[in-house]
């Protein structure tokens, strides 16, 4: 599973997704422009509800845009991803404040872009680590806020991931989950899917219902939002998806 993301082409695709301008990603005057800047919106759609916090964790941070966005609201931010390539790219952005992107136009034709991280974001408050989201050591500590975007359907055991949040989030702290729930056996064995499985009984539950059940006694659901996002593959091919995002509060 980790090998899928250890890919230079995919790193560039994610760098564009995280750091490209609107025109970099979608140059046409038509198309779902409201779906741009998803890594920013995963934070900005919820943090005004929460306010300033001491420690935040971006779990499954990819190349780090949400991690940097969290620095607007947290005094310390940790970004963790399983991909060495993704974390190396995020650390390069942290060190230089600059992003070098190879944008695929058609076939082997690429455009090289250089973009700057917005100066109001605090690179000094952020650090990045390679790690398994379902197997973090106790030394990582607890956080006032944990963000897990597009992660729950990309781990081998989503239930183990859900169980881990009670140890990661301070009592009274918050958790943001966001995912389009693209359940695939390439990432998660079918018996471990939270949703999307045919049940002969006809009593199939949604992924959100399964999460709510797993969180009973630990987290309260505060609100849900539908967050669309757009990933550019090349100049004439795009992935448009809609994630269900949910805000949870750890019970005190």
How would you describe this protein?
With 252 residues, this protein is an alpha/beta fold. The protein has one domain (2-250): Vaccinia Virus protein VP39 (Rossmann fold, 3-Layer(aba) Sandwich). It is 28% helix and 34% strand. It has helices at residues 2-5, 8-19, 22-25, 38-44, 47-50, 65-70, 84-96, 158-168, 207-215; strands spanning 53-59, 74-81, 98-106, 109-116, 126-130, 143-149, 169-179, 219-234, 237-250. It has a 7-stranded mixed sheet with strand order 5-2-1-6-7-9-8. Strands 3-4 form a two-stranded antiparallel ribbon. The radius of gyration is 18 Å and the shape is globular. The relative contact order is 0.17.
What is the radius of gyration?
18 Å
Overall spatial form = globular
The fold-level CATH name is Rossmann fold
User: Which structural class fits the helix and strand makeup?
Assistant: alpha/beta
Elements, N to C (H/E):
HHHHHEHEHEEEEHEHEE
Instruction: Quote the distance from N terminus to C terminus.
Output: 36 Å
Number of domains: 1
Pick out the low-confidence regions. Answer: none
**Strand segment tally:** 9
CATH architecture: 3-Layer(aba) Sandwich
State the helical fraction. 25-40%
CATH class: Alpha Beta
Main sheet summary: 7 strands, mixed
Read across the widest sheet, the strand sequence of neighbours is 5-2-1-6-7-9-8
**Mean pLDDT rating:** 95
- Enumerate how many helices there are, as a single number: 9
* Beta-strand content estimate: 25-35%
What is the CATH homology-level superfamily?
Vaccinia Virus protein VP39
């Amino acid at each position: 599973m980790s090998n899928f993301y250890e890919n230079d082409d995919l790193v560039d695709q994610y760098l564009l997704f995280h750091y490209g301008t609107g025109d970099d990603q979608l140059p046409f005057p038509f198309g779902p422009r409201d779906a741009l800047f998803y890594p920013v919106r995963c934070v900005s759609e919820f943090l005004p509800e929460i306010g300033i916090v001491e420690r935040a964790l971006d779990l499954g941070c990819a190349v780090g845009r949400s991690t940097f966005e969290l620095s607007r609201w947290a005094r310390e931010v940790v970004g963790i991803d399983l991909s060495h390539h993704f974390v190396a790219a995020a650390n390069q952005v942290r060190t230089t404040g600059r992003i070098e992107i190879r944008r695929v136009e058609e076939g082997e034709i690429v455009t090289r872009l250089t973009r700057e991280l917005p100066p109001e974001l605090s690179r000094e408050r952020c650090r990045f680590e390679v790690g398994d989201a379902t197997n973090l050591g106790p030394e990582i500590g607890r956080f006032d806020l944990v963000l897990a975007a597009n992660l729950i359907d990309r781990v081998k055991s989503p239930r183990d991931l859900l169980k881990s949040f009670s140890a990661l989030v301070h009592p009274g702290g918050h958790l943001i989950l966001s995912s389009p729930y693209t359940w695939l056996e390439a990432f998660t064995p079918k018996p471990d899917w939270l949703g999307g499985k045919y049940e002969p009984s006809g009593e199939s539950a949604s992924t959100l219902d399964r999460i709510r059940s797993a969180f009973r006694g630990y987290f309260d659901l505060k609100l849900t939002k539908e967050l669309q996002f757009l990933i550019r593959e090349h100049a004439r091919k795009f992935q448009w998806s809609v994630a269900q995002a949910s805000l949870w509060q750890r019970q005190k």
